[in-house]
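Justification of resources, computational component.

The compute hours requested in this renewal are based largely on the per-chain cost of generating structure records like the one below. Each record pairs the submitted sequence with a full structure-token output. That output is archived, and it is also reused by downstream analysis tasks.
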Amino acid sequence: MDAGTGIYYAKAAALFGAALAMGIGSIGPAIGQGMIGMKACENIGKYAENANKIRNT
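The structure output for this chain reads:
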């Protein structure tokens, strides 16, 4: 492996690491938004008369 090839491997590893970090970092917010939606649906089922307030909050 010459010096030119090593540079390409380093760039590829950096891009792969960045993509992996973005993918793993987006899991937490996605779970949080899903939990908010879950609780909103539960409360709309329990308190149907307040559905507009729950939906617009």
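The chain has one domain: 3-56. Residues 3-56 form one domain.
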